[in-house]
Each structure stands twice: as structure tokens, then as C-alpha cells.
Write a structure and sequence with these properties.
Number of strands: 0
Structural class: mainly alpha
Oligomer: single chain
Number of helices: 12
Distance between the termini: 47 Å
């Protein structure tokens, strides 16, 4: 066996080992993911009745549903998206078009990446300090602010990257026609990257749908029906946490049902965002 044959043999051996390890890692990950999904499905699906969506969270020893928790989660998540999305899109536009290669732009991206990877419990503690302690009580508004801090870096990063993917020839053609730069960004670049930006918003919504830690510090929970933003409000993640820790079997069943619904919601948002992103890539060739 000459030198070339030995090199070829070593490369094939290294390639085979890398393929084996990668396949093994994928199988292990898929196994645990399948186990989690099967457990959630088998324990949550039998409790998935109409009562779950029409009745309030019950006291111990009584039957009920999660209506107030679902409504509270939708309200706070919607407010968080409304607060975080416009700021995130504006910041992403600034980074992509006005500060793409500047030191300030690199600094903002670095800070945004830190916020993107920050533990949600730290964000919850921060919002607790600036809102709950100042107001003197937990509230749905504080919960929405905490979730908005999670939405913001996701939208900033997505908008920045999607605008940078738009071909520079498109922008230059519009500028050559004498169109002001702010109109080029709004009517040309933003329209071209709209589906990508929308994907980022959906991914951010999917992420905050299951966040528990920030809501424990801000919105807490409410066993009654309440739409008051300045009062504690029921929400699915905290209800799941409290019911799962309780000694009551029916509360355990409701916790599994809530986990099943949230899992299906996150799965649906993930599929929709992938479809939008795939369609955008096909349109851009």
C-alpha cells in the first residue's frame, strides 16, 4: 500500500466515523423527542374535551377547564408581539440599511445576540424589578412586557438578516430612479423580505407561548376570569407548572391537556413559518 492509498484509507475511515457519530446523535435526539411527544399525546389527548376550552380553572375536588388560562395566554402573547414587533423591525431595518458595516451596528448586533440567548428567568427578574416592584403588584401588563423582551431580539435578528439577503441590485435600481432611501426600504426592500420577517415573528410567538419563568415573576396566576391588564392574569404555562406540582389527579390531567394544546400550537407555528420561508426561497430562486 503506497502513501496515497494510506491517505485515502484514513480519510474514508474518518468519514465513516463522523457519519456514524452524526447518525447516532440524530437517533438519540429523535428518540427522546418522540418519547416526549408520545407522553404528552397519550396523557393529554384523553382529557382534551370541549369542557377544557369552555370552563374556568377549577378549585381542588371540582371539574373544570382552562378557559381563563388560554384567554390570558393569548392576550399577553398578543400584547407582547404588538410591543416587540414594531421596535424589532425598526431596529433590524436600521442595522441592515444604515449600520451594516459600522462599529455601532456590530455593537448593537452583539448586544442583541446576548439578549437573544439570555435565560428567560433573568428577563423575568429584570421586568419584575422595573414593573412589579414599582407597581406594587403582579399584572398581565408586566407579563406582556417580559414576553416582549423575548420577542424583540428574535425579530431584530430576523429582520436584519432578511433585509441583507435582498439582492443589492434591487436597491440600486430603485435608488437610480430617484426614489428616496426611506421609500426604497419601506416599499421595495421590506416587501421583498416580508415573508422572512413574518417567519421571525411567528418563531418569536412560538417561543413565548411556552415561557413560564418570566410569567412567574410578572403576571403570576389568577384562578378567576379576569381581563384587567393591571391585575394578575391566568396563563397556561404557569397553570401547567402549578397543577403539575399539586397532589390532585384531576389537576395533573388538566396540566397534561394544557401541555398537549401548547405543544400542538408551537408545532403548528413552526410548520407555518417553515412553509412561508420555503415559499420565499422558491420565489427568490
Amino acid at each position: 500500500m503506497d502513501v496515497n492509498d494510506r491517505l485515502l484509507y484514513r480519510r474514508r475511515l474518518a468519514d465513516g466515523a463522523a457519519r456514524t457519530l452524526a447518525t447516532l446523535a440524530a437517533v438519540i435526539g429523535l428518540f427522546w423527542l418522540s418519547w416526549i411527544l408520545w407522553t404528552t399525546l397519550s396523557k393529554g389527548l384523553p382529557v382534551l374535551t370541549w369542557r377544557l376550552f369552555t370552563e374556568l380553572t377549577p378549585p381542588p375536588g371540582s371539574d373544570g377547564g382552562l378557559l381563563n388560562a388560554f384567554v390570558g395566554s393569548i392576550l399577553m402573547s398578543g400584547l407582547a408581539v404588538l410591543m416587540g414587533t414594531p421596535i424589532g423591525i425598526g431596529a433590524g431595518m436600521y442595522l441592515a440599511e444604515y449600520a451594516r458595516h459600522t462599529r455601532l451596528g456590530h455593537t448593537i448586533r452583539f448586544v442583541n445576540d446576548i439578549l437573544l440567548s439570555a435565560p428567560s428567568i433573568v428577563i423575568g427578574l429584570f421586568v419584575y424589578t422595573i414593573t412589579v416592584k414599582q407597581m406594587g403588584h403582579f399584572s398581565a401588563l408586566a407579563g406582556a412586557v417580559a414576553l416582549a423582551f423575548i420577542v424583540l431580539p428574535v425579530v431584530v435578528r430576523t429582520t436584519d438578516e432578511m433585509l441583507q439577503l435582498v439582492p443589492s441590485a434591487t436597491k440600486e435600481a430603485a435608488l437610480a430612479l430617484g426614489v428616496p432611501r426611506h421609500k426604497v426600504i419601506r416599499h421595495v426592500l421590506f416587501r421583498a423580505s416580508l415573508s422572512g420577517v413574518l417567519t421571525g415573528v411567528l418563531l418569536a410567538l412560538a417561543r413565548i407561548s411556552g415561557e413560564t419563568a418570566p410569567l412567574l415573576f410578572t403576571a403570576l396566576n389568577n384562578p378567576y376570569w379576569s381581563l384587567k391588564l393591571n391585575q394578575p392574569m391566568a396563563n397556561v404555562p404557569v397553570v401547567i407548572f402549578q397543577y403539575a406540582m399539586s397532589p390532585y389527579e384531576y389537576w395533573h390531567a388538566l396540566a397534561w391537556a394544557g401541555a398537549f394544546v401548547m405543544t400542538m400550537l408551537v408545532l403548528a407555528l413552526g410548520i407555518i413559518s417553515r412553509i412561508i420561508l420555503l415559499r420565499n426561497r422558491r420565489q427568490n430562486g
